[in-house]
Amino acid sequence: MATQHSRSAARMMMAPAVVLLLGWMLVPLCMTLYFSFKKYLPLRGGDLGWVGFDNYVRFVSSSSFWPSVYATLIIVGGVLAITVVLGVLLAILLDQPMWGQGIVRMLVIAPFFVMPTVSSLVWKNMFMDPNYGLLAYLWRFFGAEPVQWMSQASLPSIVMIVSWQWLPFATLILLTAIQSLDSEQLEASEMDGAPVISRFWHIILPHLSRAITVVILIQTIFLLSIFAEIFVTTGGAFGTKTLSYLIFQRVLESQNVGLGSAGGVYAIILANIVAIFLMRIVGKNLDN
Amino acid sequence: MARAVTPRRRLINTILAWSIGLLIFFPILWTILTSFKPEGQAIADPPLFLFFDWTLENYAIVQERSNYARYLTNSIIISVGSTLLGILVAVPAAWSMAFVPSKRTKNILMWMLSTKMLPAVGVLYPIYILFIKMSLLDSRLGLVIVIMLINLPIIIWMLYTYFKEIPAPILEAARMDGASLRNEILYVLTPMAIPGIASTILLNIILAWNEAFWTLNLTAAKAGPLTAFIASYSSPEGLFFAKLSAASTMAIAPILILGWFSQKQLVRGLTFGAVK
């Protein structure tokens, strides 16, 4: 068993990590809180004094607040729906016996390794460009009028791009979970003549429920803060300004730090609500 | 694991899975192909798949125009530097939590994870202003530090789950034989932990390489890595699909290859051990 000596050594070894993370968390957090109660315009007068909860009220009552909530919900909800549904189907397919399984898996997970700025620009230009994009060519081939993706269907376009990036993540995790399913159980139900649909609902889906929850929670945390995908495509125009993009604009583009910081505090609270659920699952796993 | 199926069923599975796999991979394939086309043929109607005049000129142009090599160097320094620095801090911490756990270990682990959930945009201005004050803006050192910090919880968690799998009796035996703490870590633990440490390094280099919030907001011309290099192509400029493709291919190729090697660790690392 651990001795007194190794205990104090252990504490010392943990210290650098704990101190660094504590500083990383507390210093910026306190500064954001501090700024959020100030009227602070670095380029137009600097620190203009305390304003109480003014920034918090103004952030939610500004005309761009509700549209940004809407854009955030559509993007997060749309990407989650697409990646989870397709991810489950794809994971089941990839689990089937086939030739070249390893290669197919590599093809499927590849988009996850593409940096967000690359995937956004490749999609925006080479696929969604209304004149020269491949999709425009496809549309014309079938005699349809090409879509102005980034302006007329901006939110669906971003949902498509981000789903393409995150589908591999969902598939890979769900595939890992499916592979841990007892194949004897599946075979038994197959022999009993249980129809495919009922096998899916009663055996596979319940088995996957935990993995699906993990996928949803982790993706939500990342999706709430997607940035590059909007930055290099629409720059927040055409109704694609998400909550985090709105905060970014308030802070860095219009340099209204107080207002942006109040928004930042909202974002932190929102992320923490999601995080609590994720942590509960992870924590349970830690016990056994 | 292999379930017996009829050859016909196997064939159907294979065809279906390959079609979907190729469809998902297609944007990457198309980017790579387009990077070898002359600019005029990149927008040919109908699109050209393989029968075009293969050329390397786009790669030369991209390097010449925007100094790809410098961005690549920045990407390598930032991703490798932040990962190694993170490992240096994380190994002792993960070791002590895995082998000398106390009542608070679980809480500490959970707290570390919670720092990962902090939305970057919520602390953008503080970091920005601190960077200006410490003249770290647009410096590689600044990015190495920030990216090390955002990935530190993942590094610690991954190492912790790997270390947990090392059988404690072996370590105890070494201790019984009178090995000092230093020797125990150096000669007993490290050799067994190397595979885990290696996959942690691999996954975190990938994550750092693709990080695109801090790299875009905290760099300009000097310390910008490949994410920023590509972002400079966001305003269209005449014919540029082939050049964009060449730049994109150069930015993703190294990490795509690394990524394929780290598939398995990906799941463990990104779900904090919740799915294995």
Average the pLDDT over all residues of chain B and give the rounded result: 86
In the CATH hierarchy, what is the architecture of chain A at level 2? Orthogonal Bundle
Shape of chain B: globular
Order of helices and strands of chain A: HEEHHHHHHHHHHHH
* Level-1 CATH class name of the largest domain in chain B: Mainly Alpha
What fraction strand of chain A? Answer: under 5%
Continuous helix count of chain A: 13
Description:
The complex is a heterodimer of chains A (288) and B (276). Chain A has helices at residues 4-36, 54-61, 65-95, 101-109, 116-127, 134-141, 149-152, 154-179, 183-191, 196-224, 228-231, 243-253, 257-287, and strands at 38-41, 46-50. Chain A has 288 residues and is mainly alpha-helical. Chain A has one domain: MetI-like (MetI-like fold, Orthogonal Bundle), CATH 1.10.3720. Chain A has 13 helices and two strands. In chain A, helix 2 crosses helix 13 (257-287) and helix 10 crosses helix 13 (257-287). Chain A is globular. In chain B, 72% of the residues lie in helices and 0% in strands. Chain B contains 13 helices and no strands. In chain B, helix 1 packs across helix 12 (241-261). The model of chain B has no long low-confidence stretch (mean pLDDT 86). At the A-B interface, helix 1, helix 3, helix 4, helix 5 and helix 6 of A face helix 1, helix 4, helix 5, helix 6 and helix 7 of B.
Key phrases:
heterodimer, A: mainly alpha, 13 helices, B: 276 residues, MetI-like fold, 2 domains, globular
Question: Could you provide a short overview of the structure?
Answer:
The complex is a heterodimer of chains A (288) and B (276). By secondary structure, chain A is mainly alpha-helical.
